[in-house]
Amino acid sequence: MLSQERYNLIQNIINERTTVTVAELAEALETSESTIRRDLTALDELGKIKKFFGGATKVKHNEGFFEAAVSTKETLMSEEKTEIARYSASLINDNDFVYIDAGTTTSRLIDFITNDKATYVTNGITHARKLIHKGLNAYIIGGKIKSLTEAIIGAEGISNLSSFNFSKAFMGTNGIDIEAGFTTPDIEEAMIKEAALKHSYTAFVLADRTKFRKVFPVTFSDIDKCCIITDVLPDKKFLAETIIKEVNK
Question: Which residues partner with 170 through β-bridges?
């Protein structure tokens, strides 16, 4: 087998599994471990993979500051978001004091809320409107409005959150990564998320499978600080990091 053929196969395996050992690659390619080590060194120097002692891992590409508008996000992974939202709503108990983060999946959560004995606080403009239309006991925090995501952000919003103690928080995210944690493109939105989590007893991140293995510029929480509710987990390695519920499993 030519070197370039091995390089392509190694990259494909690493992209699929995220992390592999030298022994696993040697077995898969039916070649020696010394050859694999040389190949990994070459690929690492080319920036294609990240080599470590005994193996290699996929290079994480920062997804950048781009963020789609709410109207665009609403159409993505629609059925999966619905199932995640339906299950999440079932977790709300009588007398819960609930924070609902801005986001398209968290917005859909409100469609399935039936508990009118809980109290709800949100930083989402659309979310607040949906909550009051359902006749629920709801509050919206004050602050600057981010038009792209229809979220309340800024220092005033963070100050508002400091006086609350939520029993449950339902959060959105742009990316989930084992090392980077939960990430988002916007610094101010990350600060609001971080403040809400700081004042929440239990936190759930609602995220479909496309959010995994993505890293955006700003981390708002380590992965072990929140439970994750998703449709189907694309990488079982995440199970070792936190509690994860797969609603379509």
Answer: 100, 204
